[in-house]
Amino acid sequence: MDRTERIAALNDQLRRDRSRGKVVITRGIQALGHQAVLDVLAAVAAFSDFTPDNDPYAEHDCAVMNVGGHRMIWKIDYYDTDLNFASDDPANPAVTIRVLTIMLADEY
Fold this sequence. Notes:
Blueprint: H1 3-17, E1 21-25, H2 27-30, H3 34-46, E2 62-67, E3 70-79, E4 97-104
Parallel strand pairs: 1-4
Antiparallel strand pairs: 2-3, 3-4
């Protein structure tokens, strides 16, 4: 598996089971209510429509989608283990903490 494939696999793992990283939702997502939050998390986990247009680096790190009539964005960023700086190597989970942020599009 090459570096990009490893990053994509780690990103997919975070989206699917929320392991090896942190998930943050914005106030806008939270305000939709408990069931909507569950629906959003399930939709992000199930997302697989990656194309060269929406995933130009093939890292599976961002998407815009509609869930329950709401346009939302999710994005994965890579930090060092202290969450202070960008990770030196996003392909290495020993030195990287992934943060998945989910927001309404109008919160961007």
